[in-house]
């Protein structure tokens, strides 16, 4: 297994449902988006990821039927016992497999939602589930103040599941710092954090360093900014030029910059083709110096600007 592969996880956000917000995904998938076609595509990408050495897979209740797709693949490979499976609760998928659905997912961080969704996840994934995360903690979420919910999460932890959370929005750092202070039974409750860090939105970096120093496993999502760091964005020409100076395709430079962070546990590939998996694994093995990464951060945006733009991306 390559050093790069050890850092890479496979995220199923773009594979478990017909519509998503990643630029270029439509060209990769074409018109092949029936549930069975996407199930087959997911299996193909999982096969490629495993062959490349990837052993961490991330899904969620709101990623369409990603848990079912992953469970089917695992059932077809009963000898595999070295895959870490992470999932998330807190959003429901309500898109009904429709490309033009008005709403694709709904957020609910209540105790009732946790109880409903953890039962569904355990039904799908059974003993394969290793990590269970609150999906998209933000400052307005009631989760960290809900003592009954925290107790229920601690009970799941005490039954052998690592508890984590993901973050989004311009206040990611504040949420990370608050969550890693939460304890139950004299022990930290959260042992995994999944945040967005990329060349356009690196603001959470210092907080992730603190989390790693506290023993929390750090996972990065959206390393390519939902496709903005693949072909290039007219609004951010500097990072494209910086990648050219390094003689690297922009997406390789962007992925390598995440993999080079000293606090990183895993960086998720959002691949929807085997080739993309292979490219991401190769990029994770590229060595970049601190000064090279600093040059690539030339177009880093104000977090509020970045997240406002993300919220306006079309599902396609």
Automatic annotation (TrEMBL):
**Where does the record place the NADP-dependent oxidoreductase domain?**
38-296
InterPro entries recorded for this chain? AKR2_Oxidoreductase (IPR053135), NAD(P)_OxRdtase_dom_sf (IPR036812), NADP_OxRdtase_dom (IPR023210)
Among Pfam families, the record links this protein to:
Aldo_ket_red (PF00248)
Signal sequence bounds: none
Name by which UniProt lists this protein:
Predicted oxidoreductase
The organism encoding this protein is Branchiibius hedensis
């Amino acid at each position: 297994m390559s050093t790069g592969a050890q850092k890479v996880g496979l995220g199923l956000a773009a594979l478990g449902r017909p519509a998503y917000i990643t630029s270029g995904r439509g060209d990769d998938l074409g018109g092949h988006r029936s549930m069975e076609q996407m199930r087959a595509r997911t299996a193909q990408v999982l096969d490629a990821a495993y062959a490349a050495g990837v052993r961490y897979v991330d899904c969620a209740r709101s990623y369409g039927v990603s848990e079912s797709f992953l469970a089917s693949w695992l059932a077809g490979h009963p000898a595999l016992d070295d895959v870490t499976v992470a999932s998330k609760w807190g959003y429901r998928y309500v898109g009904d497999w429709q490309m033009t659905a008005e709403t694709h997912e709904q957020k609910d961080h209540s105790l009732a939602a946790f109880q409903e969704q953890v039962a569904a996840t355990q039904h799908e994934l059974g003993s394969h589930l290793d990590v269970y995360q609150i999906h998209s903690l933000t400052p307005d979420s009631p989760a960290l103040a809900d003592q009954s919910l925290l107790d229920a999460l601690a009970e799941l932890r005490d039954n052998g599941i690592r508890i984590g959370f993901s973050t989004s929005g311009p206040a990611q750092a504040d949420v990370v710092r608050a969550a890693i202070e939460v304890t139950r039974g004299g022990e930290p409750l959260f042992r995994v954090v999944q945040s967005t860090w990329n060349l356009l939105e690196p603001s959470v970096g210092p907080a992730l360093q603190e989390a790693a120093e506290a023993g929390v496993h750090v996972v990065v999502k959206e390393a390519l900014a939902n496709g903005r760091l693949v072909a290039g964005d007219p609004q951010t020409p500097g990072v494209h030029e910086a990648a050219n100076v390094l003689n690297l395709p922009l997406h390789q430079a962007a992925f390598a910059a995440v993999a080079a962070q000293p606090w990183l546990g895993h960086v998720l590939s959002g691949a929807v083709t085997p080739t993309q998996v292979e490219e991401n694994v190769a990029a994770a093995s590229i060595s970049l110096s601190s000064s090279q990464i600093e040059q690539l951060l030339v177009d880093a945006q104000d977090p509020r600007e970045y997240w406002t733009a993300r919220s306006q991306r079309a599902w396609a």
